[in-house]
Design brief:
Elements lengths: L1 E5 L12 E5 L4 E8 L2 E5 L11 H10 L3 E12 L2 E2 L1 H5 L6 H10 L2 E11 L2 E2 L5 H11 L7 E3 L6 H10 L7 E6 L9 E7 L2 E12 L10 E9 L5 E8 L3 H11 L40 E2 L5 E6 L2 E2 L2 E2 L3 E6 L21 H4 L10
Length: 357
């Protein structure tokens, strides 16, 4: 079941039965199937995740009901914050590497729905009842298995929206209490943070449908200058029409340059802290071509973004407008909002704080 983006916290009075609110976790969405000792982890598009998270498999055997299907999110926390980049490192072809990381940066599973238990499917049962059964089924669950917090109080959900971002969370989810579980349907609602920043265009990638005869721009590569005056890769902007993709290729052609003359000409597959850099191979899709066309970093655009992960936009940014009035060298990290830190353990319902993952 998916979620539709909305601008603000929805009004429960507009929904039969009201709404339940919960934190929006920033990890890998995961369906967990358990049948005795058999545990199968699947992404929302049914990609197999089991081999990448052996510690979650072991925890599921210990804490989940003997036969069940649950919907949740796998995450990695370092200290009191979620760290999505560390989660990406787990998608690795070498089993020895996966098991090393499972020990060094273990993952956790937060569960937010119960789809089946024993021989009974709950997909046609209202969420209010599914939630009640989930709390009963996982009342003795131990970390790294957690049940997400929920509230029906709009005021508390609003506070979560502002506070929980400091622990690395992504916003708030609203679920109609009377709704059944509907796969591939956007019956939930997500409220995410939206901010703007002026960023430098440093290159672009071709669209997957681009051809030599008809080149099409896929995404713009964006940069910001750090305190040392180095242009850092902060993310990408996309979502252009086909006509605009073709126009941008022509408009940007005069700015094309060689890697030797570009700040990112010496990129490596990972940075000093494991951060992804442009041109690096995708861990999630090893066959994906992430090469890019380098551009002289002189153009500035304003983009909308939800939140950052380390030195990067966590999700694809949205183009808003050109900023010919801004000098590229003036576009630095100081313009980005830094959320106040927040204890991840409290998000997980531990009143004493501390993640205890």
């Amino acid at each position: 079941m998916l979620a539709k983006s909305v601008k603000g916290i929805p009004d429960p009075a507009k929904f039969e039965g009201g709404l339940s609110f919960e934190p929006k976790w920033d990890g890998f969405r995961c369906l967990v199937f358990r049948d005795g000792d058999e545990v199968d982890l699947r992404s929302r598009n049914t990609r197999e995740l089991t081999r990448y998270f052996p510690e979650v498999v072991d925890a599921a055997r210990e804490s989940l009901p003997e036969r069940c299907v649950v919907d949740g999110e796998i995450f990695v926390a370092i200290g009191e914050r979620l760290e999505f980049e560390r989660l990406l490192e787990r998608i690795h072809p070498a089993d020895s590497r996966v098991r090393l990381l499972a020990h060094q940066t273990p993952a956790s599973l937060v569960v937010f729905d119960l789809l089946a238990i024993g021989d009974e499917s709950l997909m046609q049962v209202p969420f209010a009842e599914r939630r009640a059964q989930l709390e009963t089924a996982l009342e003795n669950a131990k970390p790294p298995i957690h049940i997400t917090q929920t509230t029906i109080d709009v005021g508390e959900a609003t506070r979560w929206f502002s506070q929980f971002e400091g622990a690395g969370l992504d916003g708030v989810i609203a679920k109609p209490l009377a709704s059944t579980y509907q796969p591939n349907t956007r019956t939930m609602f997500k409220v995410k943070h939206e901010r703007t920043a002026d960023v430098v265009i440093a290159g672009y990638r071709l669209h997957k449908t681009s051809t030599p005869e008809k080149p099409l721009l896929g995404s713009l590569l964006l940069g910001l200058y750090d305190g040392r005056g180095t242009l850092q890769h902060i993310g990408v902007a996309a979502s252009f029409t086909a006509k605009r993709r073709a126009e941008l290729i022509e408009e940007l052609k005069p700015l094309e340059t060689t890697p030797d003359d570009h700040p990112w000409g010496s990129w490596q597959s990972t940075g000093e802290n494991g951060d992804r850099l442009p041109g690096a191979q995708s861990r999630w899709n090893a066959g994906k071509d992430l090469s890019f066309v380098a551009l002289r970093p002189v153009l500035v655009i304003e983009v909308g973004y939800d939140h950052t992960e380390g030195t990067r936009f966590r999700h694809t940014a949205h183009f808003k407008r050109w900023r010919p009035d801004r000098d590229a060298m003036s576009c630095g990290y100081e313009q980005l909002e830094e959320p106040a830190s927040y204890n991840l353990g409290k998000v997980l319902g531990n009143p004493e704080g501390g993640a205890h993952l």
